[in-house]
C-alpha cells in the first residue's frame, strides 16, 4: 500500500509499504477513505519529537471502512464506516474506566521511555513516535486498529467524511479545551492560536456559553476564520496582545484563557528570540511564549486551559503569577472517546459543521507538498484533508 512516511526533518515521502495485518484478536483493519494532517504532525515534521525512525508511517486523524476484523471483535463488522480516535485505549484499565482515555495504562508498549521523562506513561497514539508506542499512522491506504471494540465509532447514515473526520482529534481537542475552562455565563475567553484546534476552541467556547471570545494570531486568513466563527480578533504583530486584552476587558483580563499553540510558539519580543535559540540548541524543548502570555493575561482567579502540545521542558515560566493570582491550569491529551457521541449529536443537530476548517483537499500522493504549505502557511492553508 501507499503511506506517508517520515524520513527526517522536513522530509516526508509517499512510500510503498507492506499492508497491515491482524496481529491481535481484538484488531481490525480499516481501509482509509479520509485522513488529515494535524498541527501536531508539524512537530514531527520539524524534528522536535524524539524517537522517530526513518520509514515511520505518519497520521493520527483518519477514518474509513472496516475490511477485516479479528476473532474477538464483536461490535464491528466488515463494511462498517468508522472514525478512529487518535488515542489508543484498552477500555478496561483504571483510567479508561474513569473516562480518562488518553491516560490508558495498557496501550503504550514503550511506556518505559516516557516514564523516564514524565514518571508515568499516557496512552499510545497512532503515528506519533516510538515514545508513544511506535504505532503505524493513518496517512495511508490502510491501517491496523487495536482494541477495535473500544475506539472506533460507527458513522450514522447521511453524514459525509468531512463532517465527521475531525471527531478523531481536533474537534474533541478544541471542545475539551473549552470544557476545561469551566465557562460561566458572562465569561470572556481568550484563545491563543487560530489554527485548527484554536478554531474549534473558539466555536466550542461559544457553544458552552461564553459571552465573548477573543482570538490571538498573526495569520490573516486564520484571524478571518476566527472572526467568522464569532470571535473578536487581535493580530499580535500589530499590537501587544497583553495590553490589548487589558483594554478589551476593562483592565481585569480574560476570565478564561486557552493556549492552543504549543511548543513552537512565535514571540515578537526578546524572550521569543531567546526561546528560539534555546530550543535550537536543546536547552529547552518548547517555546512557551504563548503560554507565558496567557498566564500573565488571565484575570485573578481565572483558568488557563492548555491543549497545545508540549513534549518536554520549558523555561522561565511565570509561576509567581500562577500562585499569586490563584490561577487554575488544566491540560492533557484529549479523552476523545468521551466526546465522540455528544459531539456527533451536535453535528447531527446542525449546531456545527466541522468541515468549515478545510482549505485543501489533496490526494495522498500530494502529502509532501501539503506538509510544506501547511508548515509555511502558504496558499491560505489552514487544514488539509488527504484522500488515499
UniProtKB/TrEMBL annotation:
<dbReference type="InterPro" id="IPR013154">
    <property type="entry name" value="ADH-like_N"/>
</dbReference>
<keyword id="KW-0479">Metal-binding</keyword>
<dbReference type="InterPro" id="IPR011032">
    <property type="entry name" value="GroES-like_sf"/>
</dbReference>
<dbReference type="Pfam" id="PF00107">
    <property type="entry name" value="ADH_zinc_N"/>
</dbReference>
<dbReference type="Pfam" id="PF08240">
    <property type="entry name" value="ADH_N"/>
</dbReference>
<keyword id="KW-0560">Oxidoreductase</keyword>
<dbReference type="GO" id="GO:0016491">
    <property type="term" value="F:oxidoreductase activity"/>
</dbReference>
<keyword id="KW-0862">Zinc</keyword>
<feature type="domain" description="Alcohol dehydrogenase-like N-terminal">
    <location>
        <begin position="25"/>
        <end position="152"/>
    </location>
</feature>
<dbReference type="InterPro" id="IPR036291">
    <property type="entry name" value="NAD(P)-bd_dom_sf"/>
</dbReference>
<comment type="similarity">
    <text>Belongs to the zinc-containing alcohol dehydrogenase family.</text>
</comment>
<feature type="domain" description="Alcohol dehydrogenase-like C-terminal">
    <location>
        <begin position="196"/>
        <end position="265"/>
    </location>
</feature>
<dbReference type="InterPro" id="IPR013149">
    <property type="entry name" value="ADH-like_C"/>
</dbReference>
<dbReference type="InterPro" id="IPR002328">
    <property type="entry name" value="ADH_Zn_CS"/>
</dbReference>
<protein>
    <submittedName>
        <fullName>Zinc-dependent alcohol dehydrogenase</fullName>
        <ecNumber>1.1.1.-</ecNumber>
    </submittedName>
</protein>
